[in-house]
Amino acid sequence: MSNMDYSLNVKKFTDFNQAVKVLGQRTYKTYKLCGLSSLRFNQYGDLTVGYEVIDTDLSGVAEYSQEYTKRLFTPKHVWNHLVSMLKLPSMLYDYYELFKKLGQSQLDMCLDMERDILSMFFDHREADKLQREENKSGHYLKDHYISVFTDIHGEFPRVIRSELYRPYSDLDALIDTNDNLKKHNEVKGSDFNFKNATYSPYKLKANFLDNKKKAELHKVGDKVCAGVNMFNSETKDSSYGFQVLMMRLICSNGAVSSFVDNTLKVKHIGADFEKNTLIAFKRALQLSNKYIEQYMNLEKFSEPISNSWNDLLEIPSKLITLNNREKLNLIQVAERESYNFSAYGLVQALTFEGSNNSRTDKDIKRYNDKANLIIENPTNISKWIPNRLLPKKDEKTEINDIGELSLYPN
C-alpha cells in the first residue's frame, strides 16, 4: 500500500444495486482551511498533512467551532489542488518524499524547522491578503475549504475549494440517469439497461446499453451495441454529463469507444442545471443513432492492409499519431486478440488498449480520440501501403556498369 497513487484506485461494478449501496455509504465533511502545521509519513510510507481547520455546516463556519489540527493522508492529486490555490511551492511534496532517504538525526533536524517553514507560507499569504484589502486593488485572496471523503477508497481529502460547494452527488447522478432511461424505455420503446460502472476517488462513470441498438458485423465477426456513458465528479474533477458510446460485445473485456461532444456536459452549479441536464440527455440519445451507423460503415474497411502488424511501426504520423511504445503495445494486443491489420482492426486494438490497459482518464481519452479519428475517416489508412509492399521501380542500367565502349570497332 506504500506510496499508492489513489487516483488509479478504481472499483468496478457490474451490479447496479451493489454500486448504489457502495455510493450510498459515502460521506464527506467540509472544513475551512486556516493553515498547515506539519507533514509526516504514516506507517505505509504515505505523506500525511496536519491541517489547521474549523468545522463548517450548511450555512458556513459552524457556530462555536474552534480551530484545531486534523491530520490526514494527502495524495499528490489533492496536493496539486492545494499548491495552486494556496500558492505553495509545488515541489514541496517531492521534497518531503526525499525525507524518507534521510537518517533519523537528519530527519529530526528537518522536522524541527518544519512548522516555522509552513507557517511562513501562510503568514505571507495572510499578509498579502491584508495588503490587497487595504489597497482595494487587485484580486482578494479567498478563504479556502477542504472536503474530506470517507468511502470504499478510505478517508482522505479529495478537493480544495474557494467556496462552500455542494456538488451533485455520484449517487444521485447514477440513480437519476437510470430512472430517466427507464422512462425513455417506456415512452420511446428503447431498451436501456445498466451495464457496468467504474468508481475512483475522484470520478464515477457508468455505462448503459440500449439492447435495441445492436449491430452484427458479419464480415469481421463482431457485435456492437450503442449506449450512453454517464460521468460525474463530486470533487470538481469533471462536470456532470454524458458521452455516446459503442461497446463491442464479442470482446471479453467489453472494449468501448466513447464519442465526446462538449454540449453533453453540465456544470454542477447554476440556475439552469436541470434544464441543461435535460438538453444534454436528449442529445446523447439522438447521437447514438449516428455513431452506430458510423461503426457499421467501418466494416467496409476491414480488408487487411498487410499480413503483418509490424508494418504499423512505419505508418506515417499524418495518418495516426503514435509513438513507438504505443505502436508496440497495439501490435501486442492485436496479435494476441487475432485482429486483422486493417482500419477496423486498428480501432479494435485502440479501444481495447484504452479500455483495458490505460491507467488514467488522460490515457483513455488519448486512445479513444485516435480511434474516433479512424472511425470518422477510415479511407486514408485503408489506402496506405507499407514500403515493403510498394511496387519495385524498374531497374535502370548505369553507364558505369557496361564498361568501356568503342565507337570504331576493328
Can you describe this structure?
The chain has 410 residues and is of the alpha+beta class. The protein folds into 3 domains: 6-161, Beta Barrel (OB fold (Dihydrolipoamide Acetyltransferase, E2P)); 170-301; 309-386, no CATH class. It is built from 10 helices and 13 strands. The protein has helices at 16-24, 76-86, 92-98, 104-135, 170-188, 273-298, 324-337, 343-357, 361-376, 379-383, and strands at residues 11-13, 27-41, 47-57, 60-61, 68-73, 144-151, 154-161, 192-199, 204-217, 222-232, 240-248, 256-259, 265-266. Strands 1, 8, 9, 10, 11, 12 and 13 form a 7-stranded antiparallel β-sheet that branches. Strand 6 and strand 7 form a beta hairpin. The radius of gyration is 28 Å and the shape is globular.
Write the layout of secondary structure elements.
Layout: E1 11-13, H1 16-24, E2 27-41, E3 47-57, E4 60-61, E5 68-73, H2 76-86, H3 92-98, H4 104-135, E6 144-151, E7 154-161, H5 170-188, E8 192-199, E9 204-217, E10 222-232, E11 240-248, E12 256-259, E13 265-266, H6 273-298, H7 324-337, H8 343-357, H9 361-376, H10 379-383
Antiparallel strand pairs: 1-8, 2-3, 2-6, 3-4, 3-5, 6-7, 8-9, 9-10, 10-11, 11-12, 11-13
Helix pairs in contact: 7-8, 8-9
Poorly predicted runs:
137-141
Structural class: alpha+beta
* Tally of helical runs: 10
Order of helices and strands: EHEEEEHHHEEHEEEEEEHHHHH
Instruction: Report the mean per-residue pLDDT as an integer.
Output: 78
Described by strand count, sense and barrel closure, the largest sheet is:
7 strands, antiparallel
Distance between the termini: 94 Å
Summed up, the domain count is 3
Any idea what the CATH architecture of the largest domain is?
Beta Barrel
Count of strand segments: 13
Q: Which radius of gyration do the C-alpha atoms yield?
A: 28 Å
CATH structural class of the largest domain: Mainly Beta
Helix fraction by DSSP (H/I, runs of at least 4): 25-40%
Percentage of β-strand residues: 15-25%
> Would you tell me which CATH topology of the largest domain applies?
OB fold (Dihydrolipoamide Acetyltransferase, E2P)
